[in-house]
Amino acid sequence: MTPKEKVACQRHVSRETSLMLKRWHHVPASSMNGTGRFGTKGHYGGSHNKTRVRLMHVTRLYSGEDGESHFEDLQIEVGGDAEIGKLSVRIPTTGLVFRETAADYNYGWHNAPQRQYILMLDGSVDITVGSGETRRLNTGDILLCEDTTGRGHVSRAVEGKPRRSVFVTLE
What we know:
The protein is about 10% helix and about 45% strand. By secondary structure, it is mostly beta strands. It has a single domain (about 5-170), classed as Sandwich (Jelly Rolls), CATH 2.60.120.10. β8 (about 125-130) and β9 form a beta hairpin. It is globular and about 45 Å long.
């Protein structure tokens, strides 16, 4: 990475998670081609950085002003040409928890105990929000849980299989 590119990347780095969340792009469902997953094409705008950027899909679960939980599709930019690959900006975290749930584990209406990412390592889960919308998260999917107030969401086991995940807690 050239010095000019390093300066450009530093402009994109945020010390506050909330500022980074504001920079993420809302993505219309039509961009997902019916798969629930996004393509990886993209680029930084402007002339300061011509490096090809990849977009990583995150499903956000948040509390609305109506007291219900809702879904939002986000894309996180990963870019640069570091030896270890393309990177996103750093997101401050407070902990890491490994979890395994039983094949019949279902959890009624509940809130996330705190803001956290859930990284799906193995298995699937159906999550339902107040509007009745249900989304299935599968191996490799990322969920940003921010519905810490309101009615919350429902989690249901899928196909009678256990699942493994990692919780990454946020500040």
